[in-house]
Structure to design on (679 residues):
């Protein structure tokens, strides 16, 4: 167990009870350490300017003395205005706060205050956003943190400041001193101070540079330790699979494997047959046929007398894989089970028993597979789908359940080879670049709102031929209510413009059974146009859905657009994807041109990399890459490469991290391990 006050639960802070601790947990903050390293994603610059230099509508910080009492006027339900006059040198300005009557107690005649808000030159008035505390106005930069409905900004800021006051002196450095000197990096204490309270934008920039390196360095050390542990015994066991049985599988398939699939199956079989432990990453498009390749690997392991496990990030995906694989392998005498968080207790016990005695050949599940009670008789192969969704520790926990099992990781997002090698260490890489035969390339185009007529003409044409259409409106805002409103408006508009068609709305707030019913109706061809708010809802393949219109497409990352598009074109007829967007920036226009010009995910991934610096083009959960709090593997790629080299050298010199100077690093890694187990 880690013996360090920093990793103590947040309840060790003054005034934090179990309720606040639970609310912080919703942000992934469990300990004092998590609070200290929970950094802002942006800053409000609190500039104080002379009144005659302020532009109309500019956001500014004004400091002055309260000249009149605060007056609250009410107009309608829960609507109010708090007003008072403030003297700044010889000028008097009016300050208004809307719908915040409780701020009245902060206003006392003669008291010095600092208010951040929007200035109206003509009226000489300030529409206030907030009173600024002394701590913030010293620095001129107000940190803005990612929060949710459970925890408000102010509460989080107070708790972080409390943690800094009480525990900063206990923070020791994770990055070795020699590395910090070489790359001009700040110490951990300086990073915390300057990330939370920078004096100016430049200081914030320097602190962020060090914070990014630190985060990448911790991750790459995890990877290097993992590689080092596995290389000591990268000796695996040769799997002598039965080719005549594998031939039966090939014969039973209702289609022929593509050349790419055959190539990848051969690469995997060669790995499994060798005495080295397989460490392979399989990249392939949505719909490229990775699952079938996985079936070959699973079946080969079973014919060699081993058990196999397939771990996936969500229950839906686990169930989907189970149905598909069970259908293919059960006729060949393979026993397969499904284990998720929702598996009933009785069934769960039975599964545990049958995994241990070897009755179950293949187990498919979520991270429920890494529970202590899951004990294999002879685990020889592990397949991890969408591996970036699992922590390094979670992956290792599953690996440890076998005796040097072969490891195959899969991702649906093509990642440029250079980036994949940097992020995933020394894995061999296989790619399925081409879609299965018989599939026609989706015709993609970018249209602006002025070209709506053309889009409607194509929609009418598709509907007349009996095809169905997806209309996707993105989750743009932080507010589900606003997103829903956007979707409802689109639904109303399409229902009006296509009166003879059945137009149905599907959104995330609907109860599960209702969603399933709508998707079943769409699959059965009872719905002509499906308006949907989210990517996830579109996870069912409907061969008759031949067209997709993505509204506000410039709000998505390239990868997300590509993944969405992969949901159509599952049949043998020509499909169309239209990206509706009116981007204002050159980067937005370039993005639309690129994604409309090619359906090759690998090419798009390379383009993504070229355009780095333009925000998170990859999109979050769909990116195929691990998520970081401060760094971005695309934008900060060069830093990632340096961090990798430093981490590999450190682990090479001190594989057990026994050196005193690596003590802090060791503790942080142990804590991360606990964190991943918690997830």
């Amino acid at each position: 167990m880690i013996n360090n006050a920093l990793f103590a639960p947040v309840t060790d802070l003054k005034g934090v009870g179990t309720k606040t601790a639970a609310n912080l947990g919703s942000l992934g903050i469990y300990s004092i350490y998590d609070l200290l390293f929970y950094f802002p994603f942006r800053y409000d610059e609190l500039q104080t300017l002379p009144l005659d230099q302020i532009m109309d509508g500019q956001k500014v910080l004004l400091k002055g003395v309260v000249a009149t009492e605060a007056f609250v006027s009410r107009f309608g339900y829960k609507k109010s205005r708090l007003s008072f006059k403030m003297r700044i040198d010889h000028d008097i300005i009016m300050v208004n706060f809307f719908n915040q009557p409780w701020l009245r107690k902060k206003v006392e005649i003669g008291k010095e205050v600092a208010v951040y808000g929007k200035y109206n030159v003509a009226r000489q008035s300030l529409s206030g956003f907030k009173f600024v505390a002394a701590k913030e106005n010293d620095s001129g930069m107000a940190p803005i943190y990612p929060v949710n409905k459970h925890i408000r900004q102010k509460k989080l800021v107070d708790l972080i400041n409390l943690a800094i006051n009480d525990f900063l002196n206990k923070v020791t450095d994770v990055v070795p001193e020699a590395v910090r000197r070489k790359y001009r990096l700040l110490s951990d204490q300086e990073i915390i101070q300057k990330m939370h309270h920078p004096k100016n934008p430049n200081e914030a920039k320097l602190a962020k540079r060090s914070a990014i390196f630190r985060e990448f360095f911790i991750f790459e050390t995890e990877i290097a330790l993992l590689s080092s542990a596995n290389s000591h015994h990268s000796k695996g066991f040769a799997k002598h699979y039965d080719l005549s049985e594998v031939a039966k599988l090939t014969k039973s398939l209702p289609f022929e494997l593509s050349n790419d699939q055959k190539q990848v199956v051969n690469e995997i079989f060669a790995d499994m047959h060798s005495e080295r432990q397989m460490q392979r990453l399989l990249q392939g498009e949505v719909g490229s046929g990775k699952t079938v390749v996985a079936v070959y690997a699973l079946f080969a392991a079973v014919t060699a007398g081993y058990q196999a496990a397939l771990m996936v990030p969500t229950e839906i995906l686990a169930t989907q894989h189970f149905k598909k694989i069970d259908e293919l392998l059960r006729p060949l005498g393979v026993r397969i089970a499904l284990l998720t968080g929702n598996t009933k207790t009785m069934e769960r016990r039975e599964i545990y028993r049958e995994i241990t005695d070897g009755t179950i050949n293949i187990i498919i599940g979520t991270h429920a597979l890494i529970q202590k009670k899951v004990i294999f008789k002879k685990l020889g192969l592990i397949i991890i789908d969408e591996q970036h969704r699992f922590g390094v520790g979670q992956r290792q926990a599953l690996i440890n359940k076998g005796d040097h099992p072969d490891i195959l990781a899969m991702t649906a997002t093509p990642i440029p080879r250079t980036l994949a090698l940097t992020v995933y260490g020394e894995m061999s890489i296989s790619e399925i670049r081409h879609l299965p035969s018989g599939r026609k390339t989706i015709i993609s185009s970018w249209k602006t709102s002025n070209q709506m007529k053309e889009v409607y003409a194509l929609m009418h044409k598709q509907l007349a031929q009996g095809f169905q259409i997806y209309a996707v409106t993105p989750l743009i805002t932080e507010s589900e209510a606003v997103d829903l409103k956007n979707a409802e408006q689109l639904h109303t508009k399409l229902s009006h413009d296509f009166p003879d068609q059945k137009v149905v709305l599907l959104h995330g707030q609907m109860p599960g059974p209702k969603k399933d019913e709508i998707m079943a109706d769409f699959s059965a061809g009872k719905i002509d146009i499906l308006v949907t708010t989210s990517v996830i809802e579109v996870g069912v393949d409907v061969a008759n859905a031949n067209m997709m219109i993505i509204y506000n497409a410039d709000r998505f990352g390239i990868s997300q657009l590509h993944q969405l598009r992969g949901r159509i074109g599952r049949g043998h007829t020509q499909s169309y994807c239209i990206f509706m967007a009116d981007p204002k920036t050159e980067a937005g226009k370039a993005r639309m041109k690129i994604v409309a010009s090619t359906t090759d995910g690998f090419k798009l991934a390379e383009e993504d990399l070229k355009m780095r610096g333009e925000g998170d083009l990859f999109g979050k959960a769909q990116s195929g890459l691990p998520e970081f709090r401060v760094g971005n593997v695309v934008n900060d790629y060069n830093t990632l490469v340096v961090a990798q080299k430093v981490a590999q050298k450190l682990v090479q010199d001190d594989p057990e991290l026994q050196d005193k100077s690596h003590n802090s690093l060791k503790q942080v890694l142990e804590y991360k391990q606990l964190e991943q187990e918690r997830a």
